[in-house]
Amino acid sequence: MTQNEQQSVSENFDADVAIIGGGAAGLAAAVALGRSLRKVIVIDDGHPRNAPAAGAHNVLGNEGISPLELLAKGRSEAESYGVQIQRGRVEQVQGTTDNFTLAISDSTESIRARRIILATGLVDELPDIPGVREGWGETVLHCPFCHGWEVRDQKIAVLTSGELAVHQALLFSQLSEDVTVYLNDAPEPVPEVLEQLASLNVPLVRGRVEKLVMEGKQVQAVQIENTSGSDAVLFDADAVVVAPRFNARTELFEILGGEVEETPFGTQIPVNPQGMTSVPGVWAVGNAAQAMAMVVSSAASGVMTGAAVHGDLAMADLNETVLAQRRA
């Protein structure tokens, strides 16, 4: 199909591709598609998951960049290739391949698109402990690769249990010699886990964690309930490691008939290596499809899926042209 023929097909739609979500994955997909002269609309509600963090790490060439600055640069790059960025929230989506309609919050107009990329991210389901949310993304963290360097050589409290506690303690012990695991009323670890913690020189504190003592976003101590009736016990800490449940935003995927995948760490949208879902014409990238994806890997998935979606559209257009020529 020639470029003019491609444009005539696109003119019947507001977008070749509607990308729902303007994080690293969504914007990277938009850039890849925009560079292939695709009409792209990115719909984003302006609430990035990593906004509380001071910096995004392991971002080659932009180490420690503010997450909001990174996204601003990404939007500018996407717009330079003709991508349209629209602020809003997609409340409803219907249709199928080559005929999707998206309803946007606070708008009487809808968007028609040939393909959809879900870059909707995930929600961190945090432990219900006072202080956790206040320090989240600063001194309350979960990933040693994202924030471990910033808490190196500090007093680190690990609020997880079982095998995951050993995993977290192992990784954070590389960063500090002062790591403690708090059982938080979880079942007593099996002997093998106790042996592993002892081998790491990581003490285990039993009892329920009542709260984190905070000064602004800075952890000061972990407060443990004292069952003897006296005052609660405080353990000094500079940083706290938790194990959230990572739940992808799957509402739109489910509206379109998709089935969510349950993992040990939360829910996600199942995809093939190119980001294609089980719903025809619908793709998913970034944390929506992979809970553990960091910024760079999320962006990489966006590039790969953007290229794949462009190829899918190109093949569909070619097949339509061949059929039209046969009918002529």
From TrEMBL:
Keywords: Flavoprotein, Oxidoreductase. InterPro entries: FAD/NAD-bd_sf (IPR036188), FAD/NAD-binding_dom (IPR023753), Ferredoxin-NADP_redctase_2 (IPR050097). It catalyses: [thioredoxin]-dithiol + NADP(+) = [thioredoxin]-disulfide + NADPH + H(+). Residues 16-299 form the FAD/NAD(P)-binding domain. GO terms for molecular function: thioredoxin-disulfide reductase (NADPH) activity. The keyword Glycoprotein does not apply. PANTHER family: THIOREDOXIN REDUCTASE 1-RELATED-RELATED. This is Thioredoxin reductase. It comes from Corynebacterium stationis. The lineage of its organism: Bacteria, Bacillati, Actinomycetota, Actinomycetes, Mycobacteriales.
